[in-house]
Backbone:
């Protein structure tokens, strides 16, 4: 089993839709979790950290489920500009992290 | 410069040649990283440096070397390139560790023929 797994997609959704991605991780001791966004042929950029209690930033909500060892990203009211690849990042111990392969999202008009 | 820069933007290289990818940051971050990104595999860590003068091996270090002579620069060298090293290479930095926000350079597209 990979340390961090994501559904590669692509997810094709219309503008205004709500879409959710999950990311599973294998190390039950992981403490820190992040979502990065990567536009086509660009560098990754931090979208948001994921806190134990869940957190929200505008249309984006991140959740952590420790019991089932996954994190999720919910995007409400999808915009064309949300089209990108979303990378899950999980701490593996010793202040080190590992990136998932990413989930591709296409939002269409 | 602001942030983190990489050079060259892209390169085609003959197998067996030596190549150094350059990375410079002006944020005074302690930690720097080199990743490679391949389709379906995501970003994989090649080497890292937690502070100037120290380096460590990541997940896929074979065939690569790094140095960290100062805070700002973190070059990656391929001593004798092979076709399997064809990839997009990203340099990144963070304040102290990978659990801090990582800032990425624009990447170098390397093709080894």
Residues:
């Amino acid at each position: 089993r990979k340390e961090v797994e994501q559904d590669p997609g692509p997810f094709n959704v219309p503008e205004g839709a709500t879409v959710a991605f999950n990311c599973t991780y294998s190390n039950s001791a992981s403490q820190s979790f992040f979502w990065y966004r990567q536009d086509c042929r660009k560098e990754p950029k931090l979208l948001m950290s994921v806190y134990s209690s869940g957190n929200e930033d505008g249309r984006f909500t991140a959740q952590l489920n420790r019991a089932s060892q996954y994190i999720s990203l919910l995007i409400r009211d999808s915009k064309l500009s949300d089209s990108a690849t979303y990378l899950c990042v999980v701490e593996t111990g010793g202040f080190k992290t590992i990136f998932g392969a990413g989930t591709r999202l296409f939002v269409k008009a | 410069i602001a942030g983190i820069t990489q050079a060259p933007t892209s390169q085609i290289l003959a197998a067996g040649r030596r190549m150094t990818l350059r990375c410079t940051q002006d944020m005074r971050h302690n930690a720097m990283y080199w990743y490679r990104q391949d389709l379906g595999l995501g970003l994989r860590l090649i080497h890292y440096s937690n502070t100037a003068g120290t380096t460590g091996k990541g997940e896929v270090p074979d065939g690569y070397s790094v140095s960290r002579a100062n805070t700002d620069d973190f070059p990656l060298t391929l001593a004798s390139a092979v076709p399997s090293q064809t990839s997009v290479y990203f340099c990144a930095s963070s304040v102290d560790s990978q659990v801090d926000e990582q800032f990425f350079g624009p990447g170098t597209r390397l093709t080894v023929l």
